[in-house]
Amino acid sequence: MNLFADIRAAVIDCLNVLTNDGVLPAGLDFANVTVEPPRDATHGDMATNAAMVLAKPAGLKPRDIAEALAAKLLADRRIMSADIAGPGFLNLALDAGVWAGVVRAVLTDGDFGKSNLGTGLKINVEYVSANPTGPLHVGHTRGAVFGDALASLLAYAGYDVTREYYINDGGGQVDVLARSVYLRYLEAHGQAVTFEDGTYPGEYLIKAGQDLKTKVGDAYVGQGEDVWLDDVRDFGTQAMMALIREDLDMLGVKMDVFYSEKSLYGTGRIEAAIADLKSKGLIYKGTLEPPKGKLPEDWEPREQTLFKSTDFGDDVDRPIQKSDGAWTYFAPDIAYHFDKVSRGFDALIDVFGADHGGYVKRMKAAVAALSDNAVPLDIKLTQLVKLYKNGEPFKMSKRAGTFIMLRDLVDEVGPDVTRFHMLTRKNDAPLDFDFDKVTEQSKDNPVFYVQYASARIHSVLRKAAEAGVDVGDLAIADLSLATHPAELAMAAKLAEWPRLVEIAAKGHEPHRIAFYLYDLASELHGLWNRGNDDASLRFLQVDNIPATQAKIALIKAVSVVISHGLSILGVTPAEEMR
Q: Is 20 exposed, middle or buried (0-12, 13-18, 19+ CB in 10 A)?
């Protein structure tokens, strides 16, 4: 059930009747007609822009269309009033029985809020994709949470979702990892070592060095890189990916695919992707203009193999092969996305850190070229996370060397708090993570506020059962006994859930789920507080079982939607607060 979609359908039906009656001209496009909550709740339950968007193409005044539409809509028993506001917006008030139907739908339909928006469509969401050179840090945490919640949201909206991690194990950073592991290996043999600039000094590599010693003994001691580099590179990469999988597991993130960049080299996959672009006339030999601003001292014009990314909206064409024949970093990324396109996905999403902003246009251009503009690529950038404690910047770990590890963050506040708070801001907005604020019990802490609403509802359900109230099949409760304006407002908020899911899924914005849950929790807490002053609003009416069942049916429905929303965010709903 999607009440907003249902009422919009009623509006469209009325517009078709007005067209058949000659009030509206034939051939009007109703695609931009919307039905949504009014900006001011005092104006009604829903508002439609139909008269405003149709006035110009119809050659009529908005108010004339609004008056004719209002007259038709009032024949619908669900609509109590249709009032014209301003130049032609139409505000609708719905019968209280409509909200009772919403509550019953929540209680009886296990898929309430789910959508068929993505039915039949395959979508790939790539996120985290950190270099396999160490455990995940706080910056990765935000991308992991955002990507995972987005994948869950899209699945909830009907898409066939693949969650993917791209292992960057083909570049020079894994050689640096190998050298760092080798130093820890020598250390495990009792040698004093020095970590030169560029190597990784984190204590997390100590175990890798010890494990390498266990595996090969002293076979590599005193040997040159030509003997041990390849083996230690693979060994170190596997060890770091094991750490990363542990980190993701702590956060509740499960990947469907781990795709190795290294698998693209020496297999013809890069060459095949470039050949596809070349066949389309998009690869050429050329010399790029010098970079803007102050030139690097070693810059010199040189011929390179270039991709015509400017044909697809990029600022400049991009090199894919250096003058010495080596591939640039961009080439394997092209091949990787060519593989995604070849796997038959209808859409791609990449979640990058903010430092990859300069990579967006070229990657979009590559996918557009590879798919002949058939497969859209949306790249979401996640901004930095700043940690605070007692109002001061906070550093948590020395084990990682120069960064703060995900596992320390999760150990400090738990996965649920971590995940929810990471989604309390839009992905491209900076995020402050204040340990005092995310654990305080107040309305200003969204995590607590939503979980407290869930716990309060479960507490009422337990007390009702203890009092002998049958709370088994609440869908049959007489919901006409819960029609106070505050109760109807909470039911109206429940009705927004299916619409909100579709908006969030279309915009790839899982933070909207967190915002909605906070608003829904506010309705619950507001009604709870009203009960302190007005006994008729209390959920447990010991002398009136039918009223108790009606009120508990309403808050049980709130609990169901909170559970659905938290599930999308990857958070376990609280049944009690400790």
A: exposed
Residue finishing a domain among 228, 245, 262: 245
State the Cα–Cα distance between residues 132 and 86, nearest whole angstrom. 59
CA-to-CA distance for 235 and 212, rounded, in angstroms?
8
**Per-residue pLDDT tens over the stretch 270-328:** 999 999 999 999 999 998 888 777 776 666 788 899 999 999 999 999 999 988 889 99
Confirm whether 553 is domain-assigned.
yes
Count of residues for the chain?
A: 578
Paired residues of 304 in beta bridges: 286
Taking the C-alpha atoms of residue 430 and residue 392, their distance in angstroms, rounded to an integer, is 17
Q: Quick one: tokens of 204?
A: 């997390």
Residue 2 DSSP SS3: coil
CB 517 within 8 A of CB 566: yes
Please give the residue range of the domain that contains residue 81.
3-94
- Per-residue pLDDT tens digits for 91-117: 999 999 999 999 999 999 999 999 999
Q: Are residue 454 and residue 551 in the same domain, yes or no?
A: yes
Token pair of 112 as six digits:
């309430």
> Which has the closest alpha carbon to 195: 207, 177, 173?
177
Residue partners of 432: CB distance under 8 A and separation at least 6? 385, 386, 388
Is position 382 within any domain? no
- Among 245, 261, 292, the domain boundary falls at 245
Q: Residues 455, 564: one domain?
A: yes
Q: Single out the residue of 7, 57, 6, 48 nearest to residue 28, CA to CA.
A: 57
Calculate the average pLDDT of the chain: 93
450 and 565 share one domain: yes
Question: What is the tens place of the pLDDT at every residue in 372-404?
Answer: 999 999 999 999 898 888 888 876 554 455 568
State the Rg of the chain over Cα.
29
Which pair of structure tokens corresponds to residue 489?
């407002």
Q: Is 402 part of a structural domain of the chain?
A: no
Number of structural domains in the chain: 3
Q: Is the pLDDT of residue 72 over 80?
A: yes
Residue 560: its H or E element? helix 545-569
Given a contact cutoff of 8 angstroms between Cβ atoms, the answer to whether 124 and 351 are in contact is no
Question: Which of 489, 518, 516, 491 has the alpha carbon at shortest distance from 503?
Answer: 516
Residue 524 falls inside a structural domain:
yes
Contacts of 328 (CB under 8 A, 6+ apart): 318, 319, 320, 321, 322
Residues 450 and 557 in one domain: yes
Do residue 182 and residue 80 come from a single domain? no
pLDDT of residue 50: 97
pTM over the 0.90 mark: yes
CATH number of residue 478's parent domain: 1.10.730.10
